[in-house]
TrEMBL record:
Enzyme Commission identifier(s): 5.1.3.20
Cofactor note text: Binds 1 NADP(+) per subunit.
The name this protein goes by in its record: ADP-L-glycero-D-manno-heptose-6-epimerase
Domain notes: Contains a large N-terminal NADP-binding domain, and a smaller C-terminal substrate-binding domain.
Source organism: Aquirufa avitistagni
Binding site for substrate: N169, R180, H187, F201, K202, S203, H204, R215, Y280
Role noted for this protein: Catalyzes the interconversion between ADP-D-glycero-beta-D-manno-heptose and ADP-L-glycero-beta-D-manno-heptose via an epimerization at carbon 6 of the heptose.
Gene3D superfamilies according to UniProt: NAD(P)-binding Rossmann-like Domain (3.40.50.720), UDP-galactose 4-epimerase, domain 1 (3.90.25.10)
This protein's record includes keyword Isomerase: yes
InterPro entries xref list: Epimerase_deHydtase, Heptose_epim, NAD(P)-bd_dom_sf
Record has NADP as a keyword: yes
Record-listed NADP(+) binding positions: F10, I11, D31, D32, K38, R53, I73, G74, A75, R76, T77, K145, V170, K178
PANTHER family listed in its UniProt record: ADP-L-GLYCERO-D-MANNO-HEPTOSE-6-EPIMERASE (PTHR43103:SF3), NUCLEOSIDE-DIPHOSPHATE-SUGAR EPIMERASE (PTHR43103)
Cofactor: NADP(+)
Length: 321
């Protein structure tokens, strides 16, 4: 059996879809299942059992002998939430429980960290573990992910295999429920569908033109391929970046969305909301050499190819993966 936390969410449900495609059908889906908006993400998927998030520790104590791998994807990911206690509970302490259970029961573990840990990128975007204690995230969400990374590295006892993955800007199917926290591509598709135009944030830094803020956008199918690789690889434990290694502008992202929808490009610019303006990342780009050095060789989707697949095969027909 394979455990997936955050199973009804965006990345967790995509991971289950890929595992099912690979004929892994004994999936233990862990989540807070009280949010009906996420239920469609699991429709049609082969799952052995659903376990409420709060019941996982007890369930593991009873069924650990059957568990072969643990993907801890679930987290509170709202970057506009500033109640630190919520992140301490859901992102830090819950992850510590998962970590300890994987040690106790000898279960290999992959968990989700975040590129939000890099803050403004003052120290670059290298997944050098010696630099992790020096990083300065910009919000409590980023703090919580970095706090757990630091804690994990400090532990004398570790799972026999573990990997923390710093997800960069992920986009793709099954994010319909995420609202404001959905990818810019999801928002772009909806804006273009409704109005024929797209609004992007203005730049509030003179060194960047409007829409030329840059991020490392990674298609969720690539992210899932890396997860499967690590499940099969099971060596070289540590913390890894997970982006494409190539930063692209929001203008390029918007243009790719118009092209995928076969519509003329019309981009307008609006002020960045005040509540996120001071913590807005203008540039992110993952150094991917560490993951490549352990044998991951698959190419990543280009932004254009990823957007085309997402828009034409999922957003336009309203399909889930």
């Amino acid at each position: 059996m394979i455990i997936v936390t955050g199973a009804a969410g965006f990345i967790g449900s995509c991971l289950i879809a890929r595992l099912n495609e690979l004929n892994f059908n004994y999936i233990i889906a862990v989540d807070d299942f009280s949010f009906p908006a996420k239920n469609k993400n699991l429709e049609g998927k082969k799952i052995k059992e659903r376990v409420e998030r709060t019941e996982l520790a007890t369930w593991l104590d009873q069924h650990y002998r059957e568990v072969e791998f643990f993907f801890h994807i679930g987290a509170r990911t709202d970057t506009t939430e500033f109640d630190k206690s919520i992140f301490d509970e859901l992102n830090v302490n819950y992850s510590k429980m998962v970590w300890q259970k994987c040690i106790d029961y000898q279960i290999p573990l992959v968990y989700a960290s975040s590129a939000a840990t890099y803050g403004l990128g003052e120290l670059g975007y290298d997944d050098n573990e010696s630099q992790i204690p020096n990083l300065k995230p910009l919000n409590p969400y980023g703090d919580s992910k970095n706090d757990f990374d630091i804690w994990a590295l400090q532990q004398e006892e570790k799972p026999f295999f573990w990997a923390g993955l710093k997800f960069f800007n992920v986009y793709g199917p099954n994010e319909y429920h995420k609202g404001r926290m959905a990818s810019v591509i999801w928002h772009a598709f909806n804006q273009i569908s409704e109005k024929g135009s797209l609004r992007l944030f203005k730049s509030h830094k003179p060194e960047y033109a409007d829409g030329e803020q840059m991020r490392d956008f990674i298609y969720v199918k690539d992210l899932i391929s890396v997860c499967v690789f690590l499940m099969e690889h099971r060596k070289n434990s540590g913390i890894y970046n997970l982006g494409t290694g190539i930063a692209r502008s929001f203008n390029a992202l918007g243009t790719s969305t118009f092209v995928a929808m076969n519509k003329p490009v019309q981009i307008n610019y609006i002020d960045t909301p005040v509540d996120i303006r001071d913590t807005y990342q203008y540039f992110t780009e993952a150094n991917m050499s560490k993951l490549r050095s352990i044998g991951y060789e698959d190419p990543f989707f280009t932004l254009e190819a990823g957007v085309k697949d997402y828009v034409q095969n999922y957003l336009i027909p309203g399909k889930y993966w």
